[in-house]
Design goal:
CATH topology of the largest domain: Transferase(Phosphotransferase), domain 1
Order of helices and strands: HHEEEEEEHHHHEHEEHEH
Strand content: 5-15%
Structural class: alpha/beta
Radius of gyration: 20 Å
Number of domains: 2
CATH superfamily of the largest domain: Transferase(Phosphotransferase) domain 1
Strand order of the largest sheet: 8-7-9-10
Distance between the termini: 51 Å
Amino acid sequence: MASWLDDHREPWKEVRATREIIKLLRTVKLLHESGAVHHDITPGNVFVTSNRVLKLGDFGIALHRVGVHDVSADVFAPWFAPSGMGNLGKTTWRPADDVYHLGQLFAILLCGCAKSKLTARDVKRLSCSPEAKSIIQRCIGVRRKRFPNAAVMLNALEKHDSKTIKRVIVRSLKDKKVVFTGGLSISRADAERLVRRVGGLVERRVGHETNVLVVGRQSPLWKADSKGQKLLDTDREREFGRNVAKIGEKRFFALAGVVRH
């Protein structure tokens, strides 16, 4: 894949990239279900076959857990590894770390270059849907916030691919639990007062009972593992069948009874 992208310097369309990453995930899912991790899902170990079909190879350092003990992170490609893997043999390699690799591969296909890992800032600039960006952001964030294994990431990507995520329509904020993320044209305190005025409740973070996420402008300091966390948490709630409505500033003002000119 690395060599192929050197010769074909163009981003893959999202639909094709999604389809091929789903195929890789199905393979890695079987690996994880057997109790093993691959350790080395890098652009040099994914092969582009005819019709741009991707195949996963080089299982040379794939290892199984022994009992309840995780696999030691004693061998891996440092340039493509998650942060925190610097001390060889001092930490473990978990299925979530294979997920990190798969998220990076997805992003690399969408940008058309495999020279280096992509950061959260790079992902923000990708020409793809917000849903695809959100999946990648979760994959490449800190380990505790990633998809825990290939099966969970596969489920999220298949839902996105088939567009089966049901859109939630909000007709009133009364009795709704509302969370804000990003900047609005009014202060956060004023926005919260509007919610309470129409009978809603304001929450500081997305939780199991959150009904509405009001999405404003992205902060210039936005990162996948910090400023984007409310969006990532919304996606995580969806995995458990708890749909949170996402609305913009214009819709928020309409529901709050504010006329803007």
